[in-house]
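Tokens in:
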């Protein structure tokens, strides 16, 4: 199938770009590469970029790529040496370019990405210390972030494990203590850790986060609710089409990892409803995937690169679940649009926005631009289509 071959080729091409543009001779990886493919040596280094680099290089190393294995080892060593708080545990949010701590807050989201990345690194290398690191971080998430009174995971803590004045993950987010985005990536991380090194503890943790996600964040209208206060009062102001479609396949992945018949039966209609509303409301006739729609009716039609990548995986997953051709057709349409508008299949990393969008150019690599959404999409699509 051509889409499968395209995905395999694009995964290798993305590896080439990230391997040749990010290595910092002063240690680890550059914190930023600008829109014209030039490194920014003075840029701060974020835990999100570094854990996503570790995940992608490890996933490619797991396919036998020796260069990726070396880069994964470099990423793992840098995270454990510089981002890890040896005194109080957990991972810092941001480092200066020279590796000194710059922002020492500890987002649950960041700890989860490290679980995800080190589980993948263990899977690729068999490094027992990486598995211990991942398990210790999962135990830390459970001990520090779980709300034992009302359930769910709180968003952030400071270095000393106290609530910070501002819990936001980014400037786009509400200052809310419980968010869909963090829960989604705890779910993803726990799925992978259970998949590569299952224990009764990993199973129980995965079952709990999946149940919380289905109970709290999935709404009857086929969309996710995004922000809540500590008592689970809904603070959501918009629909995120990209997260709807991303959650659809990550929910199914978690349910399959648990292999629980009742949970699979519960998850199936939810997964297809999320994918269906995302396709119906968020995708244009030309294959573009929108960013979001606010509850007051305003729609931002200029999708970012990551929504296109997640739509590709989500639609292929729905096709695998149902066998209905319209899902595969939707995936192929998104892929064609992504090649035309975001530079997929070209000579560089994908652009942040479509070429037709009236937006300023943004960096190719940085805190929120990593080889994760698009790199993972290529790996996942190739894997899914191998079943056919």
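Residues out:
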């Amino acid at each position: 199938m051509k889409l499968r071959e395209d995905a395999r080729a694009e995964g290798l091409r993305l590896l080439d770009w990230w391997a040749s543009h990010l290595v910092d001779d002063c240690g680890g990886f550059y914190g930023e590469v600008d829109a014209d493919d030039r490194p920014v040596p003075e840029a701060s280094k974020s835990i999100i970029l570094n854990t996503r680099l570790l995940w992608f290089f490890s996933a490619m190393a797991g396919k036998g790529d020796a260069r990726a294995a070396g880069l994964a080892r470099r990423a793992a060593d840098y995270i454990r040496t510089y981002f890890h708080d040896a005194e109080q545990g957990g991972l810092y949010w941001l480092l200066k370019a020279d590796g000194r701590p710059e922002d020492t807050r500890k987002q649950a989201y960041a700890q989860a990405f490290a679980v995800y990345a080190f589980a993948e690194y263990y899977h690729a290398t068999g490094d027992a210390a990486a598995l211990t690191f991942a398990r210790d971080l999962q135990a830390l998430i459970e001990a520090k972030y779980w709300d034992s009174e009302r359930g769910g995971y709180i968003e952030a803590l400071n270095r000393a494990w106290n609530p910070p004045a501002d819990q936001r993950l980014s400037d786009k987010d509400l200052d809310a203590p419980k968010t869909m985005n963090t829960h989604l990536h705890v779910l993803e991380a726990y799925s992978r850790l259970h998949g590569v090194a299952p224990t009764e503890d990993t199973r129980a943790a995965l079952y709990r986060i999946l149940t919380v996600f289905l109970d709290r964040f999935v709404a009857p209208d086929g969309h996710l609710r995004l922000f809540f206060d500590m008592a689970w009062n809904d603070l959501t102001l918009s629909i995120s089409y990209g997260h709807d479609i991303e959650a659809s396949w990550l929910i199914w992945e978690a349910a399959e990892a648990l292999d629980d018949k009742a949970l699979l039966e519960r998850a199936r209609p939810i997964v297809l409803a999320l994918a269906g509303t995302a396709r119906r409301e968020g995708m244009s006739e030309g294959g573009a995937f929108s960013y979001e729609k606010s509850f007051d009716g305003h729609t931002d039609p200029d999708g970012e690169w990551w929504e296109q990548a997640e739509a590709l995986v989500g639609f292929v997953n729905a096709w695998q679940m149902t066998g209905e051709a319209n899902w595969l057709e939707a995936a192929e349409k998104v892929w064609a649009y992504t090649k035309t508008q975001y530079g997929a299949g070209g000579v560089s990393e994908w652009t942040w926005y479509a070429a037709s969008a009236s937006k300023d150019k943004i960096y190719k690599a940085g805190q929120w631009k990593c080889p994760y959404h698009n790199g993972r999409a290529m790996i996942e699509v190739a894997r899914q289509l191998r079943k056919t």
